[in-house]
Design brief:
mainly alpha, 5 helices
């Protein structure tokens, strides 16, 4: 029983770490933690074991399940963080936008506003 549980957990941990996208990670979660997964089938078959082995096998299987869920959550957070850093449509080869530094002096801004008003009234600045 232990060998079977170790084999399931090693395979699951390897695939979780190998997943490079959220979709692959979700497929891995369903494969190893879903309703029809090997681990769940193992947990369902614990009832057929003798009473002494049942408690030990159940606690080990539940511990493996908790570890797999924690590993899945950590990997999901890591992949989501990576995905949020650079969006898919971001082209890194494009030039950046030069930030505007400083601002106009209040008197210059006032003169420009007054000039705009007079230009709208068909006056010319000479």
């Amino acid at each position: 029983m232990r060998e079977e549980l170790n084999k399931i957990s090693e395979k699951a941990f390897a695939q979780i770490r190998k997943a490079s996208t959220l979709a692959e990670l979700e497929e891995t979660r369903v494969q190893f933690l879903g309703r029809k997964s090997e681990l769940i089938q193992f947990l369902r078959n614990i009832g057929s074991l003798p009473a002494k082995e049942r408690a030990e096998a159940g606690s080990e299987a539940n511990e493996v399940k908790r570890q797999l869920e924690a590993e899945y959550d950590n990997r999901r957070l890591e992949l989501e963080r990576r995905a949020s850093i650079l969006p898919k449509d971001f082209d890194i080869s494009l030039p950046g936008i030069k930030p505007e530094l400083g601002h106009l002096h209040p008197l210059t801004q006032t003169v420009q506003d007054i000039t705009d008003i007079f230009e709208r009234l068909n006056f010319e600045v000479v």
